[in-house]
Each structure stands twice: as structure tokens, then as C-alpha cells.
């Protein structure tokens, strides 16, 4: 199955330790789908990084580039993106150094969005008109997880309302999909007045943050994890999983490939370099076939 991923993939696939990977996969298969949860990032992990050589938008960019935002504000957001995104992906800076700067970026952008008086009823059209695209093979990915009743936890530092709308419009917002993200807070007339709860940025995603929530109860017996991410910050998404047994970490290396390759190879079990598809479907198919043979 691992070989299949390597062969089928249009991208370059790196596997840290194929033997160890095979063991993890066997163990996950033996334990059954009811012990598995999938934890995934959203922007540039479930969605495409580029299409026809052009960058695709993140959930924030869907708003930034839309008609809901004034030209002056768009220019300010672009400036912020050009300032802070290089810091986010800079492999020479530590997470500790980047963290306050990421909070600064998100806070500034959210304040700008609030100033724009965005209305809730405008989001559907804005998503429809955007160039956001889920990765090739997404239908099968969501379908396998739904069929096997495996929870898909999407942990995103993006905008929850936007990304949920993307998944809804793609027709794959199944009941097993749970999104944890920055949700907009609208006033009684449907105008954006704030963002709900604690800010989620690229370096504070942790399943432990869900402790005491209804959802945490539902997943606490699932000790095997498949984690999908595109940044080193995504690696902490499984922190707090109860009695973790096996974790399979799959990383999409989209940008600044050469500079960041080594750190991704050190941290992820499988690294998909410049991939735009969901080759992980082969792993899910394998788990599913194994389960179908047994039951
Ligand atoms: N104003 C912003 C802030 C962040 N981003 C990007 O969004 C990504 C975060 O979302 P995840 O689903 O990946 O957690 C992150 O990679 C930022 O670069 C943005 O585009 N605009």
C-alpha cells in the first residue's frame, strides 16, 4: 500500500522509515476503524496550494480577495500577508520567535475584517465566486471516512464559517466532520462584530484544547491517529489525544520546498512534496478493505 502511494503519486513521496510505517499501518488495521480518528489541517492540506501554476486562496484569502472588502483594506491585508507569511514559513526562526508575530498577524487581520461589516448572508456567494479548490480525490477521502464512521477533526487557523461553506458546497460536510476554527460572531442583524472564543493560529492547535467538550467524549476511545498537515505547527494537533497508540503523520510540503525539506522529513512519517491530490486515499482504502474482509 505504501509502495502504491509512492507509485501512484504525481508528486515526490518521501517515507521516513518504510518498515516502521508498515508496522503502524498494520497495527491501525488490526485495531479496526473504530479506534481511528483523522486529524487534519484545512488550508493547503485539504485544499490545493496551486492550480495551473497559480496560488489558490486560503480561507482568509477567500474573504481578502472578495467584493466584501474595500480596496484600501485589501491592500492592507496584502501588506500584512507579504510581511507575515514569509515569517510563518521561515525555517531559520524558532516557533517561540514566530508565535507572537503570528498572533499579531491574525489579530490585525481579524480587526480589519470586523471593520468591513461583513454580513453572514454574503458568505455563500463569496465562497462560490472564489478559486478555493479541495484537493483532487477529496470526494473519496470524505466518503471513506464517512462510510467507516471515522471522525474527521479539522483543526484550522483559518476562518471556520468560510471553510465549512467550502466543504458544504463540495457536498462532503458529513456528520463525522467536526471543524475547530476561528468562527465569526455576528450580531442580531447578521453583521460581523467579532470572532468567537480563543484565537486559533498556526502554532496553538491541540486536541487537548477540546477537553471537556462533547466532542472530546466521542473521540476519547480512539487511540489511533492519522494526522494530515502542511506546516510544522500542525504536528501538535494530536497533543492531548487520550492514550495515543499509533500516529501516522502525513505532511504536505507545498512551499519553500528545498529549504524546509529536512525539517519535514525529520517530523512527518510521509512527506508529499508539491502534491495536489489526496494520495492518502490508498491508506484509507487499505484500512477499509481489511475491515470489509473481516466483517
Ligand atoms: N490573514 C491570514 C492569516 C493566515 N493565513 C494563512 O492561513 C493558513 C492557516 O490556516 P490552516 O487551515 O492551515 O490552519 C496559514 O497557513 C496562513 O498562511 C492567511 O492566508 N491569511
From TrEMBL:
Q: Which GO terms describe its molecular function?
A: 5'-nucleotidase activity; magnesium ion binding; nucleotide binding
The record lists the catalysed reaction(s) as: CMP + H2O = cytidine + phosphate; a ribonucleoside 5'-phosphate + H2O = a ribonucleoside + phosphate; N(7)-methyl-GMP + H2O = N(7)-methylguanosine + phosphate
Q: Which InterPro entries match?
A: HAD-like_sf, HAD_sf, Pyrimidine_nucleotidase_eu
The keyword Magnesium is annotated on this UniProt entry: yes
Q: Into which EC class is this enzyme placed? A: hydrolase
The protein's UniProt keywords, in alphabetical order, are:
Cytoplasm, Hydrolase, Magnesium, Metal-binding, Nucleotide metabolism, Nucleotide-binding
**Single GO BP term:** nucleotide metabolic process
For this record, the Gene Ontology CC terms, alphabetical, are: cytoplasm
Metal-binding recorded as keyword: yes
Question: What is its subcellular localisation?
Answer: Cytoplasm
Q: Which EC number(s) are documented for this chain?
A: 3.1.3.5
Give the function comment from the record. Answer: Specifically hydrolyzes 7-methylguanosine monophosphate (m(7)GMP) to 7-methylguanosine and inorganic phosphate. The specific activity for m(7)GMP may protect cells against undesired salvage of m(7)GMP and its incorporation into nucleic acids. Also has weak activity for CMP. UMP and purine nucleotides are poor substrates.
Q: What does the record note on quaternary structure?
A: Monomer.
Q: What does the sequence similarity comment in the record state about its family?
A: Belongs to the pyrimidine 5'-nucleotidase family.
Q: What is this protein called?
A: 5'-nucleotidase
Q: Which species is the source of this protein?
A: Electrophorus electricus
Gene coding for it: NT5C3B
Amino acid at each position: 500500500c505504501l509502495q502504491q502511494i509512492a507509485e501512484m503519486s504525481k508528486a515526490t513521496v518521501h517515507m521516513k522509515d518504510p518498515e516502521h510505517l508498515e508496522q503502524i499501518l498494520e497495527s491501525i488495521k488490526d485495531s479496526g476503524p473504530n479506534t481511528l480518528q483523522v486529524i487534519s489541517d484545512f488550508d493547503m492540506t485539504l485544499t490545493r496550494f496551486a492550480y495551473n501554476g497559480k496560488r489558490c486562496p486560503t480561507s482568509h484569502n477567500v474573504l481578502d480577495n472578495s467584493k466584501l472588502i474595500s480596496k484600501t483594506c485589501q491592500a492592507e491585508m496584502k501588506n500584512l500577508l507579504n510581511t507575515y507569511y514569509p515569517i510563518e514559513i521561515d525555517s531559520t526562526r524558532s516557533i517561540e520567535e514566530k508565535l507572537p508575530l503570528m498572533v499579531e498577524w491574525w489579530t490585525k487581520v481579524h480587526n480589519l475584517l470586523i471593520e468591513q461589516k461583513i454580513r453572514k448572508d454574503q458568505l455563500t456567494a463569496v465562497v462560490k465566486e472564489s478559486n478555493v479548490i479541495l484537493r483532487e480525490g477529496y470526494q473519496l477521502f470524505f466518503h471513506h471516512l464517512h462510510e467507516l464512521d471515522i471522525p474527521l477533526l479539522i483543526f484550522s487557523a483559518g476562518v471556520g464559517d468560510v471553510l465549512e461553506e467550502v466543504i458544504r458546497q463540495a457536498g462532503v460536510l458529513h456528520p463525522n466532520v467536526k471543524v475547530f476554527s476561528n468562527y465569526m460572531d455576528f450580531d442580531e442583524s447578521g453583521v460581523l462584530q467579532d470572532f468567537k472564543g480563543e484565537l486559533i493560529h498556526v502554532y496553538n492547535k491541540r486536541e487537548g484544547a477540546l477537553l471537556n467538550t462533547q466532542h472530546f467524549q466521542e473521540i476519547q476511545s480512539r487511540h489511533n491517529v492519522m494526522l494530515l498537515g502542511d506546516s510544522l505547527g500542525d504536528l501538535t494537533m494530536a497533543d492531548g489525544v487520550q492514550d495515543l497508540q499509533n500516529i501516522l503523520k502525513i505532511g504536505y510540503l507545498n512551499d519553500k520546498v528545498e529549504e524546509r525539506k529536512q525539517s519535514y522529513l525529520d517530523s512527518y512519517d510521509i512527506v508529499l512534496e508539491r502534491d495536489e491530490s489526496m494520495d492518502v486515499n490508498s491508506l484509507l482504502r487499505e484500512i477499509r478493505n481489511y475491515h470489509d474482509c473481516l466483517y
